[in-house]
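Input/output pair, single chain:
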Amino acid sequence: MQLLPDLPARLGYTMPAEWEPHEATWLSWPHKEESWPGLFDRIPLVWVEIVRALVASEEVRILVGSAEMEAAA
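Output:
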């Protein structure tokens, strides 16, 4: 892992507001069952619907933690 020499804000990085121009929307593929108690089995399908809606108007990039998660995404 490479550390930044300074705080991201001081290096010019910002988090754009939803309406500001941006290259893509980043999502993290659901992976923590405890975040969705009793619902986790249905959540990946919900994520798919979210991605479908977003890709109609912008690029979507999905973060995954493993090859298994990548295959599921």
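The CA atoms of residues 15 and 60 lie 16 Å apart. The beta strands are 25-28, 60-63.
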